[in-house]
Amino acid sequence: MYRSHTCGELNAASIGQEVKLSGWVQKIRDKGFMVWVDLRDRYGITQLIFDEERSSKELMEKAQKLGREFVIQVSGKVIERESKNTNIPTGEIEVLVDEVNILNTSLTPPFTIENETDGGEDLRMKYRYLDIRRNPVKNKLKFRHKVGMEVRNYLSNQDFVEVETPYLIKSTPEGARDFVVPSRMNEGQFYALPQSPQTFKQLLMVGGMDKYFQIVKCFRDEDLRADRQPEFTQIDCEMAFVEQEDILNIFEGLTRHLLKEINGVDVAEFPRMTYSEAMKKYGNDKPDIRFGMEFAELNDLAKNKGFNVFDQQELVVGIAVPGAASFTRKEIDKLISWVKRPQVGANGLVWAKYNEDGTLKSSVDKFYSEEDLKTWAEATSAKPGDLILLMAGDANKTRTQLSALRMHLGNELGLRKADEFAPLWVIDFPLLEWDEETNRFHAMHHPFTSPKKEDFALLETKPGEVRANAYDLVLNGNEIGGGSIRIHDKETQEKMFDYLGFTPEEAKAQFGFLMDAFQYGAPPHGGIAFGFDRLVAILGGQESIRDFIAFPKNNNGRDVMIDAPAKLDEAQLKELHLQVNYLEETSKNSQGK
Ligand code: ASP
């Protein structure tokens, strides 16, 4: 038996007991005549004591030779500690050791195994197994487990069945590139890893499973923008015989359950906003509604007043920044450079200060009277003390740019509080989205999403205006879930593939199995998927998902610990019937590496 107790378990009530503990050496304090060792495991830290007067010479020597991160087993007696530590549960006792057994030695770790470590991100990732010994990472993994358990509890109680779907499949269109896997047994053919279990969960509905969920890995070969992972986890769900309303209710319930059980927070009914309203009010389909600064469109109030810069633009739009009338010229200039950075790409900002004394002063006083500025203040709901900021340009672009500024200011002014939760349903997404590059429409969600019945006729005339039965769940400015009511008949699905530019042959080759299934009594169905990593991070009050993932990849999609991806050896390639013949440009890259 390695241990009778964990290192987090013993306390004053255990005094007098003979115990056995196993764990890692966190710290050694050697006073010569006395040695203290902090012994650590997942559950906590227990202080061990070796004392010249009470321990043998041999034992003292053994204790003095211990090193950091050695794995040891000790037997001894729980005694009362002289100087107590009230900060930890085991702080009133220590174990007077009578036997120590070194189970394994350790090299000196490359960074300190402390809450605040001296190890940088790269080093921590390379030795992730050491990083996981640290409380901040360990606790995040435990937290993730807890969220996962609550998800399973809730859905299971609602009669959902967790079903596993395969990873070696054919392409699923979620809008990213596929990771592919060559087949040894089927020469020249490849599996694709699922971007999501989308088609399988729909087939489970045809199969009569009625309510399905799965906490499942998804794989998307995208360029990794900040805080994305090429493999990530979804809470994937599907239900039969449901309308949008049913789905929103069930998953609002799930989210509320999690906020209650995990964060102890009760939230009121989730507000709902249409996609077009979200774009107009926040320039964003995932607005953070923890703070205001809603957009006000100012075309009527700011155009045709002699200020040319505005007159030619499609949209003039403004926000009121609370309490920012006191910003200095320098601070405002900083904001202007911020929006001019290529990442935002705006031309500049026009500002108007609504001073505490009720007067108004702007960067365009030449063109606008104080009366004019007052109308801006009204439209943006600015109060004395606020700063009004205006942008102008192409409507969509300008909204996006102002949205970036709004979020930036939200962060700067501390309006995005981690312990505040503001969920929101965004509904009525467009069915299709114009893609400038390929010059055609793409499914905004995915090709299995059903258009709204009342918009169906528009498909022929104004496809861009057709709304879908599609919805996103937004939490604190993050899209944490998204889904739709699906098409469940062959004809509509065929038509949809046609609109999306698939030839009937292509559609059949890629999704024939689904359309076949629709001919055998497919029930009406719909579903949703939550991004589990992000959800866990937000509930944990953090921005970054990385520490909630045991073994994450870096921004180049590499696992620096196991050093993957890696080349295959010749024998393996041969078995897979492959010959690697790098294209010229890529071979340059791989040589440079
Ligand atoms: N498969 C979709 C996604 O991954 C979610 C859904 O429509 O249920 O975003």
TrEMBL record:
Subcellular location as annotated: Cytoplasm
An example GO biological process term is:
aspartyl-tRNA aminoacylation
Where do the Aminoacyl-transfer RNA synthetases class-II family profile domain residues begin and end?
151-552
Is RNA-binding there in the keyword field?
no
Q: What class of enzyme is it?
A: ligase
Annotated CDD domains = AspRS_core (cd00777), EcAspRS_like_N (cd04317)
List of residues binding ATP? 220-222, 229, 479, 531-534
Q: Which PROSITE patterns match?
A: AA_TRNA_LIGASE_II (PS50862)
Q: Name one Pfam family in it.
A: tRNA_anti-codon
Q: What does the record give as EC number?
A: 6.1.1.12
Which keywords, in A-to-Z order, does the entry hold?
Answer: Aminoacyl-tRNA synthetase, ATP-binding, Cytoplasm, Ligase, Nucleotide-binding, Protein biosynthesis
Q: Per UniProt, where does L-aspartate bind? A: 174, 220, 445, 486
Residue numbers spanned by region Aspartate: 198-201
A GO cellular component entry from the record: cytoplasm
Question: Which reaction equations make up its catalytic activity?
Answer: tRNA(Asp) + L-aspartate + ATP = L-aspartyl-tRNA(Asp) + AMP + diphosphate
Q: How does it assemble?
A: Homodimer.
Family (UniProt): Belongs to the class-II aminoacyl-tRNA synthetase family. Type 1 subfamily.
**Job of this protein:** Catalyzes the attachment of L-aspartate to tRNA(Asp) in a two-step reaction: L-aspartate is first activated by ATP to form Asp-AMP and then transferred to the acceptor end of tRNA(Asp).
Name by which UniProt lists this protein: Aspartate--tRNA ligase
